[in-house]
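Feature request, filed as a ticket because there's no other form

It would be nice if the structure record came with a short human-readable summary line next to the tokens. Right now we just get the raw output. Example of a typical job, pasted below so the devs can see what we mean:
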Amino acid sequence: MKAPPQVAKGHRPQVFDDPAVDQLYAAYVTLATELSVAFERIAVLERTLEQHAGVSRALIEQVAHAEQQSPERAAKRAELAARLVRPFRDFREAHIAAASAARAEHNQGAEHDQSLGRDAPAPSPRP
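Raw output as currently delivered:
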């Protein structure tokens, strides 16, 4: 029997008006699914420790609290946060760079027109 494909083929349906919102929604659903699986596995591990190793829930909570105070754990949390925010930051920075380049190009064109004695086009009124 042939294994199913790892990636869906064909056109991906678009639910929202903006494709970026569809992508964000897909990322959110994927993250929520992965988090749900992780929570379930953590619960299984805690029950296993409690039933087979004699580790109480109170001890687990005590160790977890101590770990939260660890500088190493704080650094790992900051690293995770940076990875999660990176696509949004990169998207924002790319748009800012594109807008800056377009503005610079527009300004160069206006300066060129002025050097030729032409008036720069009047800015269009904003709605």
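Something like this underneath would help us a lot:
The chain is about 70% helix and 0% strand.
The mean pLDDT is 86.
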